[in-house]
Amino acid sequence: MTGYILGFDIGGTGVRGALARITADGAETLATRTDPTPIRMGPDGVDPEQVGRAVTYVTAALLPPGSAAQAVVLGCTGAALLGTGLRHRLAATITAGRPAPTVLLCSDVLTSHIGALGTGGGAVVAAGTGAIALGSDGNGAWRRADGWGTLLGDSGGGAWIGRTGIDAALRAHDGRPGGSPALLDAMHTRYGSPAELVHAVTSRPDRGALLAGFAPDVAAAAAADPIAYRIMRTAGRHLADTLLAALPPGAPPRAAAVGNLLHAGPPLTTALAERLAARAPHLRLLTRAGTSLDGAVTLAAAAVHQALPPGADLERLTPAAHPATPQTA
User: Fold this and answer.
1) Do 170 and 253 touch, CB atoms closer than 8 A?
2) Smaller CB count within 10 Å for the chain: N or C?
3) How far apart are CA 22 and CA 212, in angstroms?
4) Are 227 and 324 part of one and the same domain?
5) Separation between Cα atoms, residue 262 and residue 292, nearest integer Å
């Protein structure tokens, strides 16, 4: 037995993998590898065929020749939408010519949660293009909040910021109240005319990413534009509310905010922290959280040690022809 495990973080910006060695109390990461090709995103989530190719590449690059992984965890955006066929192909890719390991698939919000807080409970809000929070009491109770997509929810996420900023820009274009000339200038620079923007939003399948592309412009304008400043602060408050909604009764008072959107910094992060302090002064907000990839490795090690967090939504994959059965760890 080699003692190797693999963890994957699969999202719109590519596929990252980590090779680790099992230790007595967890795992030691030995190497990481990234396929940086952006994963195509459609209305139903990630492109499954592209995910399969990227996982094949990263697996081959990480595993030493002739070796096998005891457990593999795939933390994937839109995991529920990959389809049975790809689930089997992913498992077959990892097990091909090797002893069959445990292969587990889960949402990247679970790996983000475990990466940030470990298996002891608390709540994590993940903010990128979208926004979603996951909380656990550490004893089997889990609660999700938001993550309803860029049309119906994801309040405070990148697409929400971009959409709200574009609304302010178009108000300025029309001469309606609440318009921002600064954001109108930024919108022209990024998208062209309003007609060009409307065509792009209505014709492209990756409209969430398109809208989120305006979030950095809103963040940059917030330093001098009061409307952009208000948008960023409102986004931070939305993220705080989503995080608190995900805390089950009896959960440890620990929390973390993760995701690329947090790189925007103040005023978003300031408003998030202030909202948490006002609504839940007992809550401890961790500032040095681990990554989603760290969480995938932690879960893979827990699978080997038979110590998966109770109640976690993990699906065991098999390369067999019959449908994989969802399992709750």
Assistant:
1) no
2) N
3) 39
4) no
5) 14
Size of the chain, expressed as the number of residues it contains: 329
Residues 154 and 216 in one domain: yes
**CA angle, 217 as apex, 216 and 223 as ends, to 5°?**
100
pTM of the model: 0.84
CA proximity to 50, closest of 12, 8, 102, 19: 12
Tokens at 11, concatenated: 């999202």
Find out whether 236 and 266 touch, Cβ atoms under 8 Å.
no
**115 and 160 part of one domain:** no
